[in-house]
Structures are given as structure tokens and as C-alpha cells.
Inverse folding.
């Protein structure tokens, strides 16, 4: 069975999140395998740049998910980080593209494309919404 450890990134900019996809595959968050001796933050910066050509500043790990598909002999550990957009315009590299399209989606519109997202992306955005709700509740209680 194959085991891979990957970073996934939820990137925010002006109330929007970055999503992309390969051809007609489901929408997903940028990410990929962590290189040997590569720090999580470095892998996140590299993966977002390789997928969409933008620069980000990773903030922290927000949660870890796991995908196990015995029928495919696959076991993936997905480490999700939150990152702030810092600069650049979404650009799909012509040579060795990881996505064929990418876009910023208003977080309030994620439900509109939910049926077109990968299961991992739906799960990630759901967990992220819970984290944001808890943070808002805590900051409201402190006011």
C-alpha cells in the first residue's frame, strides 16, 4: 500500500479562497507531496506557486485529514495549512501544469460549486468554516 504525506492549503484573499482543477476533474485546494527534508511551510509555498503562480504566507496548520482507499492501495495523510495571499496573479504554467484552471471563489459562493469539488475539498472547507465560526464566537465573547 502506498503512503503519502501531503500539504494542502486554504488560501484566502479579500474574502475569497483559491481553488483549481485539472481538466474536468473536481475543484480542489492546492497541495501535494512534501519533499524529503522539506519543511511544511516551504512545501506549502512551493505547491501553491506550482499550482497557481501566486505567492502566499503560510500561517499555521489548521487540521489533518486522512484518506484511505484499500481498493486502490492508497493511504494519504493531508496536512492543511491556512495561508494569506501576498502577491501575484493566478497563472497556470505552460510547462508541467498541475491544474488547467484556477480561480478565486467568494467563500459565500462555495456552496454553489460544492457538487463539483473533490470530497477532500468539501471536507476541508467544512472544517475550515467550523474553525472560522469558533474564532468569531470567541472574539465576540471577548468584546
Amino acid at each position: 500500500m502506498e503512503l503519502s504525506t501531503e500539504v494542502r492549503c486554504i488560501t484566502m484573499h479579500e474574502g475569497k479562497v483559491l481553488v483549481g482543477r485539472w481538466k474536468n476533474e473536481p475543484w480542489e485546494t492546492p497541495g501535494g507531496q512534501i519533499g524529503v527534508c522539506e519543511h511544511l511551510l516551504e512545501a506549502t509555498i512551493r505547491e501553491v506557486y506550482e499550482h497557481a503562480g501566486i505567492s502566499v504566507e503560510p500561517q499555521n496548520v489548521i487540521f489533518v485529514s486522512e484518506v484511505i482507499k484499500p481498493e486502490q492501495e492508497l493511504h494519504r495523510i493531508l496536512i492543511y495549512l491556512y495561508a494569506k495571499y501576498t502577491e501575484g496573479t493566478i497563472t497556470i504554467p505552460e510547462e508541467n501544469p498541475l491544474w488547467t484552471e484556477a480561480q478565486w471563489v467568494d467563500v459565500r459562493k462555495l456552496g454553489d460549486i460544492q457538487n463539483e469539488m473533490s470530497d477532500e475539498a468539501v471536507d476541508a472547507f467544512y472544517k475550515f468554516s467550523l474553525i472560522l465560526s469558533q474564532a468569531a464566537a470567541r472574539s465576540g465573547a471577548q468584546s
Notes: Residues 2-142 form a domain with the Nucleoside Triphosphate Pyrophosphohydrolase fold (CATH 3.90.79.10).
